[in-house]
Amino acid sequence: MNSSTIFYIVLALFVVWMLYRMFAPVKGLIQLRDEPFRKKMEQSKRKRLIDVREAHEFKAGHIPGAVNIPLSQIGGRLSEISKDGDVFVYCQSGMRSKQAAKMLLKNGFPEINNLMGGISSWSGKRVR
């Protein structure tokens, strides 16, 4: 094998590994579509709804009752999120909120509910 073949094999393995990490299931992460997400929030007696988009995205429209803690700030604002009750997270498409959920799980939160498809898939009310 020549060096370019080895390079492409290593590159392919890296891409496969990255895709696995991006889409692999995460223990403690509950991925919910729009309607089940909304129903679980309605049934929850103690909940915290977190929008992890940036402030300008939040101001453009968000789910009623959401608190804006951007993904870029969530590590430094963990103390604002109670570990008692249900935690619900969302972003624009579901990818940033999945990253936020992983961070919360690593910091001792037992379970996180993520809106699959993000606010783009949300059919409920929005606050502007």
UniProtKB/TrEMBL annotation:
PANTHER family on file: FAD-DEPENDENT OXIDOREDUCTASE, RHODANESE-RELATED SULFURTRANSFERASES
Gene3D superfamilies with a match to the protein in the record: Rhodanese-like domain
Transmembrane segments: 6-23
Lineage: Bacteria, Bacillati, Bacillota, Bacilli, Bacillales
InterPro entries noted in UniProt: GlpE_sulfurtransferase, Rhodanese-like_dom, Rhodanese-like_dom_sf, Thiosulphate_STrfase_CS
Keywords: Membrane, Transmembrane, Transmembrane helix
Pfam (any one): Rhodanese
Descriptive protein name: Rhodanese-like domain-containing protein
Highest taxon of the lineage: Bacteria
Domain Rhodanese: 43-128
